[in-house]
Amino acid sequence: MKQRTQELLQENQDLKDIAPIWKRLNSDTQRRKGKVEEMEQRTKELLRENQELKEKCASLRQQKSDALAKLQREQAQIAQQKKELIVKDQANQALSDTMKHQQRKNDQLLHRLSEQQRKVQEMEQRIEKLLREKEQLKSDAPVPAELQGEQKEQKSKHEKIEEAKKRTMKKRVYMAGSLSAWLRGQVSVFRR
Fold it and tell me: Among residues 123, 113, 124, which one has the least CA distance to residue 169?
C-alpha cells in the first residue's frame, strides 16, 4: 500500500506539474478560439464589404454604360446638326452667289436705263431746241411747204419720242416691281 500511495503521490505530483501546462494550453486554445471567432467575424465583414463593392461596381458599370450611350446619342445629334449647318451654309452661299449675280444684272440694267434716260434727255433737248427754232421761224416768216413737211416729220418724231418715254417709264416701273418681288422672295427663302 505504501507503494500504491507513493504511486498516487507521484501521479498527483505529475498532475500538478502538468496542470500549469494544461492551463496554459487551455488558455492558448481559448485565445486561439477567440482569434478564430474574431477572424471569422472579420471574414464575414470583409465578405459583406466585398459584396457591397461588387454591387457598387455593377452600378458604376451600368452608369458608365448609360453615360456612354447618352454621349454617343449626343455625338450623333451633333454630327447631324453639323451636316444640317453645312447644307444651310451651302444653301446660303448659293443664295448669296445668286443675289450677287442678280445685283450685277440689276446694276447692268440700271446702267442701261440711265444710258437710255440720258439719250431721252438729249433727244428732249434737241426737240425743245427744234421747237424753239420752229416758233422763231413761225414768227419771222411764213413757213414754206417744204418746211411744213419737215415740221410734220419733227412733230411725228416728237410724238414717237414721247411714246418711247412712256414705254420706257412703264418698263422701268415693271422692272422695279419685278425686281422688288423677286428680292422679297429671295429674302423670304434666305430667312428660312
Answer: 113
| CA 184 vs CA 37, 87, 100, 101, 121: distances in Å | 91, 22, 15, 16, 32
Per-residue pLDDT tens for 93-120? 988 888 888 888 888 888 888 888 888 8
pLDDT digits (tens, 9 = 90+) for 54-81: 999 999 999 999 999 999 999 999 999 9
* Dihedral of the alpha carbons of 159, 162, 164, 166, in degrees to the nearest 10: -140
Mean pLDDT by 10 residues, the chain (192 residues): 78 74 75 81 91 93 94 95 92 88 87 86 85 76 59 75 78 71 65 56
Domain that holds residue 14: 2-191
Give residue for cell 410734220.
Answer: 152
Helix ranges restricted to H, the chain? 2-140, 145-191
The answer to pTM > 0.70 is no
Nearest to 168 by CA among 160, 157, 180: 160
What pLDDT score does 78 carry? 95
Structurally, the chain folds into a number of domains equal to 1
Handedness of CA 19, 24, 29, 33 (dihedral sign): positive
Contact 102, 180 (CB under 8 A): no
Name the nearest CA neighbour of 109 among 182, 186, 163, 160.
Answer: 182
